[in-house]
Amino acid sequence: MAGINCIGILTSGGDAPGMNAAIRAVTRAAIYGGLRVKGIYRGYRGLITGEIVEFKTQNVSNIIQAGGTILKTARCKEFQTPEGRKQAYEMMQKEGIDALVVIGGDGSLTGARVFATEFNIPIVGLPGTIDNDLYGTDRTIGYDTALNTIMECVDKIRDTATSHERLFFIEVMGRDAGFLALNGAIASGAEAAIIPEISTEVDQLSELISNGFRKSKNSSIVLVAESPVTGGAMGMAERVKNEFPQYDVRVSILGHLQRGGSPTAADRILASRMGAAAIEALLEDQRNVMIGIRNDEIVYVPFSKAIKNDKPIKRELLTTLRTLSI
Ligand code: F6P
Question: Fewer CB near the last or first residue (10 Å), C or N of the chain?
Answer without folding.
Answer: C
